[in-house]
Design goal:
The complex is a heterodimer. By secondary structure, chain A is of the alpha/beta class. Chain A contains 11 helices and 7 strands. The radius of gyration of chain B is 21 Å and the shape is globular. The chains are: A alpha/beta, B alpha/beta.
Chain lengths: 263, 354
């Protein structure tokens, strides 16, 4: 992708590879939605013109190699610690745009403390939280977001809420914290939802750029491989099962963010 | 600058300020909380970063992030808190970013107590986290040294892109004595941050900081580079102090607070006609093995005194390689051994080796 083809004078450029993505082929499974989410973030960063001052923090999980795919400064956090690492970066480099990219095991289990306190401090960072209700990288174990009754390799008879507790609704939990300025739950299960997610990611970064507080976009996503479904069936399964438990929409829009949206 | 009366913890904190620390992330734990308290007012008044984190786990990962961004950064803690930070130490070591850690040891294991101890020697110098690495570990024996070694820790961390740890104990943290502060250094400007740091990929390729190398040969290459760096540190940075060793026939090896106690033991032994000397390691990693091996040829025997069950004594024995008897005396539970109990042990060694 080093060379950009010249657009003939009688044609208009309507689609291009984002500058904020590297040309590497990802390691994600066919049908995985991480690629779509990566692209949405890259498009937003291009559109805001902040690639050269953006620093990303990758998680432990399927997106552990995210830094291979984003064309910007990046670091790799320990499992769950991305928000703490992002806090350290942002506090010493307040002019930079800092974001974490985290999955549900990373953010809602081992990193619960870090995400809650980072949000509560109103750190000027943005978190992209990919919720696919399972531990993908380790091969499909029960996640904090696994639905009641959902079969995984570590809940072979289905998640029993009596012993394993209930799936964590992180957007609601984070949304109630005063430091969080903008928190929303979106999905990438069809074209309209992908477009809405893109808008939400853009707003989340704009909230950071305007210095309004912590912003997080939770994205209902799929893991067709570990769910044992075809990519299309996985999208349908998520719509039928995840969206009812994890309702889509904003869980926090601070007044300052509302004013930003109206500008 | 004239001497002033400083409490150890506050002195360490102020020394870090003078050394140009840009950010501190920490969590309260006795007996080092005064470091955090001192910096909570000093750093903001100087326009620098102070943040009290939700845990030691978060603190060290904030340090990791700030270090990746190229800032001079530190944290401080005590034994149970250091245990929680070990995950971060390992990531920082593999990522080769500089960070300064102040470790004011207390009695253990477990919650232990808040009294002075050296029970975390192994943790600091042998196994500061998973994987093959050592931090540079500096062990002050008095407050002036705590100040000077804190400043040195920043310089060594920067020079070698590694963790530099100041390994003190609760009594050094809590006691007061006259000491001189170094002059205030200018803080590094954001545009002066190192070329490897995460500063935004403007007009250059992205900088990536990671500790993940999935291909075995690549990870081995990283390890070989880390080991080469450790050998360079071991060759250049060994520091120790000697007292009355020129004609010594009996040698005490002790570090930190009890190293200072042993200066009295040497004096009292000499008054009794015993030719005693003291070697006090200043760096416990790298360890002054070569000098101890040399002295092992000169003396009849070595007594190692520690505030633990016998940890550094293993490094002394490795250095001595059987050239002379090495005996050990230690107290645990947060007790500092006193001259009255150490001197008889030295006399026993004298009887044993005469």
């Amino acid at each position: 992708m080093d060379t950009i083809l010249e657009v003939p004078p009688d044609m208009e450029l309507v689609y291009a590879y984002p500058e904020s993505l590297t040309p590497k082929v990802t390691h994600y499974c066919p049908g995985c939605t991480h690629g779509v989410i990566h692209r949405l973030i890259a498009e937003v960063i291009d559109e805001l013109g902040v690639r050269e001052r953006t620093i990303g923090v990758a998680p432990v999980g399927c997106a552990v190699l995210a830094y291979e795919y984003f064309n910007m400064d990046f670091c790799e956090a320990a499992h769950g610690r991305a928000p703490a690492m992002a806090t350290g970066i942002k506090r010493v480099s307040p002019d930079k745009v800092v974001f974490t990219y985290q999955g549900d095991g990373d953010l809602a289990a081992i990193g619960t403390s870090e995400i809650i306190h980072t949000a509560n401090r109103g750190e000027l960072i943005t978190t992209i939280f990919v919720n696919n209700a399972i531990y993908g990288m380790t091969g499909g174990q029960m996640a904090p977001t696994t639905l009641p009754g959902q079969v995984t390799t570590s809940s072979p008879r289905g998640r029993d809420v009596e012993t394993a507790g209930w799936p964590m609704k992180m957007a609601e939990l984070i949304g109630m914290l005063p430091g969080a300025a903008y928190v929303t739950r979106q999905s990438v299960l069809d074209v309209p939802s992908i477009r809405r997610t893109r808008k939400a990611i853009k707003l989340a970064f704009q909230v950071q750029l305007a210095g309004l507080g912590f912003s997080m976009v939770e994205i209902i996503s799929t893991c067709n491989t570990n769910w044992g479904l075809s990519p299309l069936d996985a999208l349908e399964w998520a719509k039928q099962n995840m969206v009812p438990y994890y309702p889509l929409g904003d869980t926090k829009v601070a007044d300052s963010v509302r004013a930003l949206m109206e500008r | 600058m004239a001497k002033e009366l400083w409490e150890g913890n506050a002195a360490i904190a102020e020394a870090a300020v003078r050394a140009g620390v840009e950010a501190f992330f920490g969590y309260p734990i006795t007996p080092q909380t005064e470091i955090l308290e001192h910096l909570s007012h000093r750093l903001p008044e100087l326009g620098r970063v102070f943040l009290q984190a939700e845990s030691e786990v978060a603190s060290i990962n904030m340090v990791y992030g700030a270090a990746c961004a190229g800032a001079r950064v530190m944290t401080s803690s005590s034994s149970p808190g250091i245990s929680l930070m070990q995950e971060g130490f390992s990531y920082i070591a593999c990522s080769e970013v500089p960070a300064v850690i102040i470790n004011v040891m207390r009695g253990g294991p477990g919650l232990g107590n808040v009294a002075p101890s050296q029970g975390d020697y192994f943790q600091a110098v042998k196994m500061a986290g998973h994987g093959d690495f050592h931090p540079i570990v500096l062990a002050p024996g008095n407050i002036q040294e705590a100040i000077d070694l804190t400043v040195l820790a920043f310089d060594l961390a920067d020079k070698y892109r590694t963790i530099a740890m100041v390994l003190a104990d609760g009594s050094l943290g809590q006691m007061m004595e006259p000491a001189e502060m170094p002059p205030m250094r200018p803080v590094r400007k954001p545009e002066e941050r190192p070329a490897w740091a995460l500063t935004g990929a403007k007009g250059r390729k992205p900088n990536i900081i990671t500790s993940l190398y999935l291909v075995e040969e690549e990870l081995e290459k990283v390890n070989l580079r880390l080991q080469a760096k450790l050998r360079e540190i071991a060759a250049n940075e060994v520091r120790w102090k000697e007292y009355s060793t020129e004609d010594a026939e009996l040698l005490i090896v002790a570090f930190g607070t009890v190293g200072r106690v042993c200066q009295t033991v040497v004096r009292e032994a000499r008054e009794k006609g015993l030719k005693a000397g003291l070697l006090r390691p200043i760096t416990v990693w790298p360890f002054p093995s070569a000098r101890i091996a040399e002295l092992a040829r000169q003396v009849r025997g070595i007594l190692v005194v520690e505030m633990n069950a016998g940890q550094m004594v293993e490094d002394v024995r490795l250095a001595v390689e059987g050239r002379c008897p090495v005996r050990f005396y230690g107290r645990m539970g947060g007790i500092i051994p006193l001259p009255d109990e150490i001197l008889p042990k030295l006399e026993e060694l004298h009887q044993e080796t005469r």
